[in-house]
Design a protein that fits this description.
Blueprint: E1 5-8, E2 20-25, E3 28-34, E4 40-45, E5 57-60, E6 72-77, E7 80-86, E8 92-97, E9 105-108, E10 120-125, E11 128-134, E12 140-145, E13 153-156, E14 162-163, E15 166-170, E16 176-181, E17 184-191, E18 194-200, E19 207-213, E20 217-224, E21 227-233, E22 239-244, E23 249-255, E24 261-266, E25 269-274, E26 289-293, E27 300-304, E28 316-321, E29 324-331, E30 335-341, E31 348-352, E32 364-369, E33 372-379, E34 383-389, E35 396-398, E36 412-417, E37 420-427, E38 431-438
Antiparallel strand pairs: 1-38, 2-3, 3-4, 4-5, 6-7, 7-8, 8-9, 10-11, 11-12, 12-13, 14-15, 16-17, 17-18, 18-19, 20-21, 21-22, 22-23, 24-25, 25-26, 26-27, 28-29, 29-30, 30-31, 32-33, 33-34, 34-35, 36-37, 37-38
Length: 451
């Protein structure tokens, strides 16, 4: 594996171009950046494998000059990149790009004029993208697009007529939490004074699989095979774990205290962190630990009390890679470090004590890429820098630091493009820009001397 290399210094300064939303697709790394001359616009790179050498290029100045079109919600669907942008004329609308200036265009002026439809909640579904938008007549409802004007249309007006609280204004169901489960689309939407979870096959009709008062909060939608898991808070500040198998939904378990979080699918089940709170008042007696659910009440239980007793190991940044889970957690001896689990108590173990002893390396931004786990960790003398692991203790190592000494490069947003993995990082001279490493098999990993 290569030493991290700066892809391009787009805005030579101590601040940098501040790249965001790195997305890979069709041999192109897309992202947004502000080079100091064009405002925040859409950029691209072909990575280190580009015959012309590494670098990054402005795709198109959608709002010419120093003003910004501020592309958001970058989403690959098929071979096209969908995103929203404001060109200063049409308001915020849906755009599409193939990486060329000619192939970067507004898909449709959904709400004609300068106001814009403000598309949001973009979800790729094969070559299509589903999203919420407001056309000025039907309120905020569910739309779909194939990247053409004629193929961009309202799927369903779930809340027809006037808003119950604002007569004369169109009712908005405000679709959100869009999640693909097999061949179906699930999402949350309101009608009058109720909130629903809807199941749709992408046609005009949708079936409700959950309903409740509008003050109920539904979140953490996670697909595991044909099941949809989610959290339900009935306006009490605490949540229950629920599961839908496609027609109805059932409550699996109530969790007093803090919300369960980091729901992650593995092998048809979900794993998550739950139980946090003050044990004498709320939360689980064992504190916040790693849990699992197979979609049944009896199959929802704690995997392991990593920090025995009422103290919390507080698993976070849970990710699945090649049949195992990886996450950050604390125990009584090692501080907050990198752990792995095969889903059993016996197989839930400390993977590596990156900051030996009681110190915390506090792994963050765990991202599976190219069969490896990339993440950041904060270790003595190095600050927060990029790390990589192949799932073994000996194969968990620091990449060469980007910010020298105790300064932190704070790497984030790891994305794979071919045999390269890119991420944003801070450097004292370059500011925040995109860096990358090559993970081609047979290339040696450069490890810092103190590892």
């Amino acid at each position: 594996m290569s030493t991290p290399v700066l892809l391009a210094d787009l805005s030579p300064s101590a601040t940098g171009s501040l790249p965001r939303e790195l997305v890979a697709g069709n041999g192109i790394l897309f992202f947004t950046a502000d080079d100091g001359a064009h405002g925040r616009e859409l950029w691209k790179s072909h990575g280190f494998g580009d015959a012309t050498g590494p670098g990054a290029f402005l795709v198109k100045d959608l709002r010419p000059g120093a003003s910004t079109s501020n592309p958001r919600r970058l989403t690959m669907a098929g071979s096209q990149l969908f995103f929203t942008a404001d060109d200063g004329v049409h308001g915020r609308e849906l755009w599409v790009s193939d990486g060329t200036p000619a192939g970067t265009r507004m898909v449709k002026d959904i709400w004609p004029g300068a106001y814009g439809a403000s598309p949001d909640q973009l979800l790729a579904f094969g070559p299509l993208v589903y999203f919420a938008a407001n056309d000025g007549q039907n309120g905020i409802e569910l739309w779909r697009s194939d990247g053409t004007e004629t193929g961009t249309f309202l799927v369903s007006d779930l809340y027809p007529g006037d808003d119950v609280y604002s007569p004369g204004a169109p009712g908005s169901s405000s679709p959100r939490r869009l999640t693909r489960v097999g061949d179906a689309l699930f999402f949350v939407a309101n009608v009058n004074d109720e909130v629903f979870i809807w199941r749709s096959l992408g046609l005009s009709s949708a079936t409700s699989v959950f309903s409740g008062p509008e003050d109920n909060f539904l979140s953490a939608f996670t697909a595991a095979d044909s099941k949809l898991f989610f959290l339900h808070d009935n306006d009490e500040g605490e949540a229950s774990l629920w599961c839908s198998h496609g027609t109805v939904s059932e409550q699996l378990r109530f969790f007093p205290g803090l919300y369960p979080h980091d729901l992650t699918a593995l092998g048809g089940k979900i794993f998550f962190s739950a139980g946090g709170g003050e044990p004498e008042f709320w939360g689980e007696p064992e504190g916040e630990e790693l849990w699992v659910s197979d979609g049944t009440s009896h199959g929802t239980f704690r995997v392991k009390d990593i920090w025995p007793g009422p103290d919390s190991s507080a698993p976070s940044a849970i990710k699945a890679l090649e049949g195992k889970l990886y996450f950050a957690a604390s125990d009584a001896l090692h501080g907050r470090e990198l752990w792995s689990s095969d889903g059993t108590a016996k197989g839930t173990l400390l993977l590596s004590d990156l900051a030996p002893g009681p110190w915390d390396s506090a792994p963050e931004n765990l991202t599976p890429a190219a069969g490896l786990l990339f993440f950041s960790a904060d270790t003595p003398g190095r600050g927060r820098e990029p790390w990589v692991s192949n799932g073994t203790e000996v194969g968990t190592m620091a990449l060469q630091e980007i910010a020298p000494g105790n300064e932190a490069s704070d790497p984030q947003g790891f994305v794979r493009l071919g045999w390269d993995v890119f991420f944003t990082a801070q450097h004292p001279l370059h500011g925040t820009e995109i860096w990358g490493v090559t993970v081609r098999p047979g290339v040696r990993c450069d490890v810092h001397d103190d590892q």
